[in-house]
Each structure stands twice: as C-alpha cells, then as structure tokens.
Amino acid sequence: MQETINITKDRINNEEISKILLDKWYDWKWQLKNSIHKVETVEKILGVTFSDKKKQAIKTTIEKFPMSVTPYYLSLVDTDDPENDPVFKQCFPDIRELSLSNCDMSDPLHEDKDSPVEGITHRYPDRVLFHISNVCAMYCRHCTRKRKVGDVDSIPSKEVILKGIEYLKNTPQVRDVLISGGDPLMLSDDYLDWILSQLSEIPHVEVIRIGSRMPVVLPYRITDELVEVLKKYDNIWLNTHFNHPREITGSSRRALKKLSGAGIPLGNQSVLLRDVNDCPRIMKRLVHKLTANKVRPYYLYQCDLSEGLEHFRTNVGKGIEIMENLRGHTSGFAVPTYVIDAPGGGGKIPVMPSYLISWSTNKVILRNYEGVITTYKMPDDYKHNECDLECENCNLTLKTENDDLEYKTIGISKLLSDYEEEITLTPENLERDTRNSGDAS
Ligand SMILES: *Cc1c(COP(=O)(O)O)cnc(C)c1O
Fold it and tell me: Could you tell me which residues carry N6-(pyridoxal phosphate)lysine (predicted)?
C-alpha cells in the first residue's frame, strides 16, 4: 500500500496534493469524490501523453460509455506500459467499444425482461437477483450492464426497495436472494443494514448473497463499521470480482481478511477477458492468490454479448483450455466453474472439458488430466429406485416437513423423474406442427 501512495505521490508533483492524499487516501468517500472521469486527469496521474487523435477517440467513447475510476484502482496501473496493462484495460475507455458487432445485444441476459417488479430478476426457481443500487465505485469497461452505466447514478428509494421486498414475501419458493447492482456496497451502512434487516425478516429467505467489486476497486469501503453491520446477519455470503492477480494488493487483502474474519464466506466471479486474463498461467496464479486469501473461485464467465464488448471476447476454446489447466493440476477448491450466461435469459450453462470418453452397459471409460485413460466398472446389481414421492416406501426415507415446492421439477430433471408424465421437451412453433391437419388420430 505504501508503494501505491508513493507512486501516486511521485506522479503528482505537488506537495500540497500529496499531503492531502496521505491523509485522505484510505477514506472511501474521498476516493469516490475524487474518482477520475477525464482523459486529461489520467494523463496527469499516469504521466503519459496520448496523441490528439487518440484523445479525441477516447472522448467520443466516453460520451456513450462514461469513465469513472477510483484513484486507488488507477494507482495499480503499471506506468511503464499502461496500454498493455490488465488494470488499465479494465478501467480505461477504448474506441472499439463503439463498434457494434451484429450479435451484440443491449440486454443479452434478459434481466429487464425477466423482471416481475422493478429491481428484481427472477429467472431460477429458488433464487433471485435484487438490484439495490444503480451505482458503482468504478465503471468496468467490460460491464455486462453497460447499457445502464452512467444512466442515472441513483440508489433506489425505500418505496422501490419495499416493492421488491413485498414480491419476495409473496414468493415463498425464493430461498436465496442475491443483492447486486450496481454495487450494493455503494449504499450507506445504515441503508444497507435496513435492507438486510427487511430481507432477514422473510422466513423463507435462507441465504443472502452480496455481489460487490469493492474489495477490488475500492477496498477501503470494507470498513470495520460495515463489517459490524454484515456480522449481524448469519446467512450472508459475498462474491467479488477479481480478474487478474495484480489486483490482489495489500489493501485488498486486508479488506478480504476483515470479511472472512467476520465469518462471511467469500467467492470470486471472474470474467474471461481478451488480453487481460486469457492465459492459463495468469488464471492459475489468480486462483492461487484468491484461495490463499480465503476466497473460493466460484465462476469463470465467458464474456457476455453485451454492446461494446466484442474486443474483450475470447473463443470458448480458450476457456476450456484454462479449465483443462486447472482441474487436476491444482487444488480442487481453486477451480471455478466455467459458464456461458445464455443469451436470451437461459441462465448460466457450465462448459468444461470432456472427461467421460465412452461407456457400455457395465463400464464407463474416463480420462484424467494427465491423459490416463481408465475404466470404472459399475455394479452388476444396481436397481433403479423408483420414486413416487412417498418416502415411506423408499429405503432412503427422506422425510421433509412437506414441501410441495421442492418436488416441482422442470427441464431435464423432469424428464428424468419417475413421477412426471412428460417424456419430451418440445420447442414451440415446430414447423412440422403446422403441417399437421389437426385431427391427429
Ligand atoms: C447468476 C444469477 C443468479 C445466481 O445463480 P447461481 O448459479 O445460483 O450463482 C440468480 N439469478 C440470476 C438472474 C442470475 O443471473
């Protein structure tokens, strides 16, 4: 940390400013107030000069997709070669953001479409995304909600939040609420505390998850006071968003330690980004540093089809290559799940190398990470345990306190179940259906 202050001090050749910096640097509100929005400020701080042409291109980009970087995050940029720096690329505009590809979509994940009430995306049966903030400490250039960045930097009012809470109260199948944004930790401690208390009063909400990039872009937000608030609730998990090992600094480590020390399970969601982290060695280094700080790598996302992200996207093959380099090669709990968030609101689909090579009626053929091909022989007498949902008749005798909700199957698990009639999942509007005369028999 001392290093970053020194770097910043060197760069700003003004004693007065550096004195203020030393006093205020660790104050998250100061960091936000002094966030950088202009090319000229970046030039000054990094000690670089962009050509007029480049500056103009950046300004044009900023008009559509604004820039906002915390002094802390900018201080992590390697000034010897900023343009090839993974931190710089995540926070500094690129003219390529303006070139739309024909597959780009403004809302690829249908977050607005799958929204029963303002602020809530309810896609999966038992969990929802609850957007409680439209503000972020930093505008990531690869933001999947780029369409909204800089719209109105606002925090939803209590009335709006209460409508979301009302929906959750009336929707008993929701047992997991993922509060996201924007960044939920942009809210004041008190406001966040109020929302958390509202959520924890809902009996069926078993888990509250916070998605925040603060430990990465503004670790000073993780204050003792904030941790005291979070500590009051015993079902909070927190997922953050480190993309590169360089982002794990002394300051971010201290922030993570405070959170894990408060008993909050920590996870990390990375996005696979071209020329930032699309390298098996970088990703391995990242997951090692994360686990050393008690952060469990959770997802590795294929970059979404949002507008202006084409230059960040990689082949899916690169993601599989990274997974191939992790599984077996390092601790199992350091291996994230590589997912593609399906365009059109299909949700996250895991993608991985194939380990199951073939099978017969009594054997499966597998290969491991070293290329060893092996045989697993299945038992000869394994009988299908027919499930009719009457646990009394089953030798496993699961006895839950009822739950009709739990037995509602959908998708492939419905096809697999014994107690559902369905034997096919059929797309709507099949062409062959239009050819049928109508009197089928
Ligand atoms: C990612 C996501 C979730 C949470 O998914 P998990 O796989 O449980 O982490 C929930 N709702 C929406 C809309 C999401 O995009």
Answer: 348
CA of 167 relative to ligand 1 center, distance in Å: 18
**Is 33 among the domain residues?**
yes
Question: What's the average model confidence in pLDDT over 107-111?
Answer: 80
Q: Where are the beta strands (DSSP E) in 294-361?
A: 295-302, 337-342, 347-350, 356-359
pLDDT at 213: 98
Boundaries of domain holding 409: 391-429
Beta bridge partners of 240: 268
Residue to probe by mutation, ligand 1, list 122, 124, 241, 301, most atoms within 8 Å of CB: 124
Domain identity same for 139 and 253: yes
Per residue in 138-160, pLDDT tens? 999 999 988 777 666 678 999 99
394 labelled binding-site residue: no
Closest listed residue to residue 18, CA positions, set 37, 4, 33, 32: 4
Catalytic sites, residue numbers: 123-124, 127, 136, 140, 143, 145, 304, 341, 348
Atom of ligand 1 nearest to the CA of 127: 10
Q: Do residue 302 and residue 359 come from a single domain?
A: no
For 266-355, where are the E strands, in sequence order? 266-272, 295-302, 337-342, 347-350
39 and 181 both lie in a single domain: no
pTM, to two decimals: 0.92
What mean pLDDT value characterizes the chain? 91
